[in-house]
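Hi R.,

Here's the chain you asked about this morning:
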Amino acid sequence: GRVFYIFDEASSASILFPPEWSLIARDAFNGVLLWKKNIPEWHPHLWPLKSMPATLPRRLVSIGDHVYVTLGIKAPVTQLNAVDGAETRVFAGSERCEEIVVSGDTLLAVCLSGPGPLDDLDAQRGETGTDGRTTSFPFQRKLMGGIKSPLWLNAKRRLIAYDLKSGKEKWHADGKYAPLSVATD
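And the predicted structure, written out as tokens:
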């Protein structure tokens, strides 16, 4: 009976306004706002149009009365109460998680364990352009070719299995997992 989504609530008057990301919960029947949580840092909003990484929707999972989400682009997986948004658990070691899959009593998190495709974007923001002026989005040049980067497919990642009841790690496996390749049955 609830719908959860991550949305940029900044003004739509200009794409250059800084983003204001939030996790929002609504009643699935009438759309009434149930609760929302601010997400201070999320994916760059100036990413090329309609080219967002396909893994972003895999950072939000809702099962029963629980929501599993990363509340920041580099944040660990957090378990929230679906009714009121209260934080009930943070899964230790799941920082830089790119994908969450829940199966039975196990949460699987695919997390970067080495350099990732977005790691150097912050350093490129605000650099001086060839015209001598400082711009807030020179990193967009990097983003245009970013999806062809070998880091998307070859970045070192760790697959971590957590027990949902205790929140403790069951096991992990290091490797080069391709985005969207983790599945369960």
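The radius of gyration is 18 Å.

Let me know if you need anything else.
M.
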